[in-house]
Design brief:
The chain has a five-stranded parallel β-sheet. The chain is α/β, with parallel strands linked by helices and 203 residues long. The chain is globular. It has eleven helices and five strands. The protein is 46% helix and 11% strand. It has two domains: 126 residues, Rossmann fold (3-Layer(aba) Sandwich), CATH 3.40.50.1000; 64 residues, DNA polymerase, domain 1. α1 runs antiparallel to α5.
Length: 203
């Protein structure tokens, strides 16, 4: 059975990101254990709460200061946290414009209000306002939808809401644990690994 639907991850698949830039930024602020709190493969309870919208950015900043035993400001935390967010190459935007005529495309991202505000602001500076959102039938951001990867039930919520056939749906992500969760949910998957980009997938 052929592919009719594609669910894209955002960071690391469409948006270029570098987790190490955020880790280094926090180390420079005196937070030596940041990698144990958050990395590409695992998030602590605090970061899971932020990424599912259970706590506000201000509450996050306060809790982060407590667990990191630092006196860093909200602005310093925000800047360090956003350091991982890089660029969205225009050729990937153009590619999405083409394939949306061939597939039903969706976005499913583990993100948070702080990152969302940052990358949407950047995108809107370089593209017409909300243009990126119009490329997809629907965008699912974990902080606004209340669920996140890699939990299998989260993929099933999207499948059920959009009435998709799992056998006709492929999920693309750069993080293996998210791919494994999607497989358990019954989706076809593509684990995108550097240096491969979406432009090389032949879709």
């Amino acid at each position: 059975m052929g592919i009719k639907n594609i669910i894209f991850d955002f960071g690391g698949v469409l948006l270029n990101i570098d987790y190490m830039l955020t880790e280094k930024a926090f180390i420079n602020l005196g937070v030596s254990n940041f990698a144990t709190l958050y990395n590409q493969h695992k998030a602590s309870d605090l970061f899971e709460q932020l990424e599912t919208g259970k706590i506000s950015p201000d509450d996050f900043y306060n809790h982060f200061r407590a667990i990191s035993k630092t006196n860093v400001t909200n602005e310093q935390i925000k800047d360090a946290w956003n350091a991982m967010l890089l660029d969205l190459p225009i050729e990937r935007i153009e590619w999405l414009q083409k394939i949306k005529n061939k597939y039903n495309i969706f976005l499913y991202s583990n993100t948070n209000q702080i990152h969302y505000d940052c990358f949407i602001n950047t995108l809107n500076k370089n593209l017409p306002n909300n243009f990126f959102e119009t490329l997809f039938i629907k965008t699912y951001y974990s902080h606004s939808c209340g669920f996140r990867k890699p939990y299998p039930e989260s993929y099933l919520k999207i499948i059920e809401e959009q009435q998709l056939n799992k056998a006709e749906t492929v999920f693309i992500d750069d993080t293996l644990i998210n791919i494994e969760g999607a497989k358990i949910a019954g989706l076809q998957t593509i684990h995108l690994q550097t240096p491969t980009t979406v432009l090389n997938l032949g879709l």
